[in-house]
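FAQ

Q: What does a record look like?
A: Structure on top, sequence underneath. For example:
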């Protein structure tokens, strides 16, 4: 059993609380992404699960066994680091097998595992090369192979693709997900890239300032953000947050949003609308085009609405230019209302 659970996990450095009461579950054979901006505590949580950071308070279990203060080597986990952590003086074969040698695995078993893993990650022709003679993607494959060859049921990954270029990140992202599904690994993957989270995860744990902001499947966080932070963090481009304090003409705003219900005392409140939900229309909210970004299959339109900037995303090429006045609207179902605490209305 490799189900992972954290209960009220806390990590403090002096008076600084980096992780503040974090509780979540990772189902066996699933992939959970810890997502959030730099400094939110996601890597610290991963390192506590791995046994590389001491837990201040709380509990961690794997397969129902309390491993909170267990030695890292006995936890049954493997880890892939952001920096690859390869030995420069060892070739690919030796780097992959290093952990098995330390654990005393027989030569015959090591050869068998190496053959299987090298073929799986496409390293068969590179086994005699040193890390210095490998590309970034190849080095990441070596680190991944070293983790897989250990045959541990739990795999932890700390921003493994951040050092790669965009094209290679896309390829490696697909490879990691395919490998996780094929081997049935229970995986926790740390990233600040919401695209990685949306495309790879069974479950996303969104973190802010050491606390959980929202947990759910990627589509749940996208379609039903519980907070203004989640609404703005998830999505590319991010959700527009229209601050009601800065809106002078509530009539046009209501017309644009199909009479989206907003309380009279709405100080600090905001309305969230995804860029793709904003449509050019005959009536609604009047704004001015600030800029247009043509991306081939779609165009991102930057709209100036009073002191606020809104983004709209339309298919194809927009036949408008900077400075043009436009009228936009959206359906009532597309609007998300957030109160002065940043919580979605009704949550």
């Amino acid at each position: 059993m490799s189900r992972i659970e954290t209960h009220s996990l806390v990590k403090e450095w002096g008076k600084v609380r980096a992780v503040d009461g974090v509780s979540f579950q990772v189902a066996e054979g699933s992939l959970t992404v810890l997502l959030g901006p730099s400094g939110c505590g996601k890597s610290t949580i991963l390192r506590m699960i791995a046994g590389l950071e001491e837990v201040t308070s709380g509990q961690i279990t794997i397969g129902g066994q309390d491993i909170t203060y267990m030695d890292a080597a006995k936890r049954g986990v493997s880890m892939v680091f952001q920096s690859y952590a390869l030995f420069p003086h060892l070739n690919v074969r030796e780097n992959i097998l290093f952990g098995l040698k330390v654990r005393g695995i027989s030569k015959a078993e090591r050869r068998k595992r190496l053959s299987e893993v090298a073929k799986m990650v496409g390293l068969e022709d590179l086994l005699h090369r040193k890390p210095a003679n490998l590309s970034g993607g190849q080095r990441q494959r070596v680190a991944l192979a070293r983790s897989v060859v250990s045959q541990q049921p739990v795999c932890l990954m700390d921003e493994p693709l951040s050092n790669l270029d965009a094209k290679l990140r896309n390829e490696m992202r697909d490879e990691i997900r395919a490998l996780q599904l094929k081997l049935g690994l229970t995986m926790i993957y740390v990233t600040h890239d919401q695209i990685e989270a949306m495309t790879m995860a069974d479950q996303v744990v969104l973190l802010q300032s050491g606390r959980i902001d929202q947990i759910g499947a990627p589509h749940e966080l996208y379609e039903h953000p519980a907070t203004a932070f989640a609404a703005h963090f998830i999505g590319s481009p991010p959700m527009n947050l229209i601050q009601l304090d800065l809106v002078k003409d509530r009539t046009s705003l209501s017309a644009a949003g199909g009479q989206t219900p907003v309380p009279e005392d709405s100080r600090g409140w905001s309305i969230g609308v995804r860029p793709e939900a904003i449509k050019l229309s005959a009536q609604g909210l009047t704004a001015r085009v600030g800029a247009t970004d043509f991306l081939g299959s779609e165009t991102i339109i930057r709209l100036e609405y009073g002191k606020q900037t809104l983004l709209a995303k339309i298919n194809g090429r927009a036949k408008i230019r900077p400075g043009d006045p436009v009228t936009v609207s959206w359906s009532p179902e597309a609007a998300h209302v957030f109160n002065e605490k940043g919580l979605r209305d009704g949550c």
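Q: Is there anything notable about this one?
A: The radius of gyration is 24 Å.
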